C-alpha cells in the first residue's frame, strides 16, 4: 500500500521536480541522486505520526480579530519510515544538494496526507457591500500529498546517524470559493460563541479548483551544548522553499534559532500551508524535551490568490506586495511520543491598499502511534 501511495504522489510531483532541478540532477558532485542511501529508521521512526493544527487571529492582542488570515485548521498523517521504495520513484523525487553539503550516509523516507481549511476576511466584517480597498473574503479547502526525506550523517561522538537535512515535496489540491465552506464554518462558529456574523461573504472569491507544488529544504546547523547538566543546547535551522500554483507562487528563505533540550528530535514546529511548514516528523526517545524558538522568513511573491483574486480576473482584488516578511516565536514541548507547540506570528503588510501587520497564533499537537 505504501508503494502504491508513494508512486501516485511521485507521479504528481514529477513535473515540478524536473523544473526545480533539470541541471542539478546531472551534477557531478556527491549527492543522493547517484548513490543509493541505506535506510536508518529506528523503532520509533517506524510508527505513524498524526498532526492537528489550529491557527487563528483570536490570539491577536494588538489589533482587531477576524481580519486578514483569520482561521486555519489542518489534520495530517505521516507514514512510518518506508524501508523500501521503488528506485524510479526515489530518483524522480530526490532533489540534489545545491550548497555543497556533504553527502548523507542514510535516509528516512515517508509519505504524508493532510487536509485543511483556511479563511480570509477584510477588516470590516459588518458591511454586506463590496469593499474595494481591502482584501476580499476567501476560503480554501485543500488536501495535501507529500514525500518527506530526512537525511542523516553518522556522528562518531554519539555513534548514531544524526538528522542533518529535511526535504519536503508536496502537491496541494483543493478549491477556493463558496464550495470551500468558509461562510458556513465562520458564521456558525460565531453563532456558537455569541459573536456577530460576517456579513460580506456574498462578495467572496468564486469557485475555482486549485493546484500547487512546493519544495522545501531545511538544514540543521550550529548545534552546540551550552550546559551539560541540566542539558541545554542551541541550534539554527535555515530553510528555503519554492512554490508554484494558482494559489501561491513564491520563493522564500528563512531560519529558526532554538534553545532547549533534545533539539535533535525534530526540525522545528509545524505551520499550515501556504505558509512555510515545519516538520510533522519528530524522533524522540520518550524522554522529556523542550525548546524556545524564534525565526524569520522572507518571501518574494509572484502570486497570492487571496489578494490577486480569481485567476479569470472576474473577482475582487487588491495589489499584493512583492516582498513580505514574517517573524515567529514560541515554545515546543516533547514527551512520550507527543509534541505540543505554540507559535505567535507577525507578518508585514501584504498588499498596498492597507498598511497593517497581520498577527495570529498557531497551536499544534503531534503524536506518534
UniProtKB/TrEMBL annotation:
<dbReference type="Pfam" id="PF09982">
    <property type="entry name" value="LpxR"/>
</dbReference>
<dbReference type="InterPro" id="IPR018707">
    <property type="entry name" value="LpxR"/>
</dbReference>
<feature type="signal peptide">
    <location>
        <begin position="1"/>
        <end position="25"/>
    </location>
</feature>
<protein>
    <submittedName>
        <fullName>Lipid A deacylase LpxR family protein</fullName>
    </submittedName>
</protein>
<keyword id="KW-0732">Signal</keyword>
<feature type="region of interest" description="Disordered">
    <location>
        <begin position="23"/>
        <end position="45"/>
    </location>
</feature>
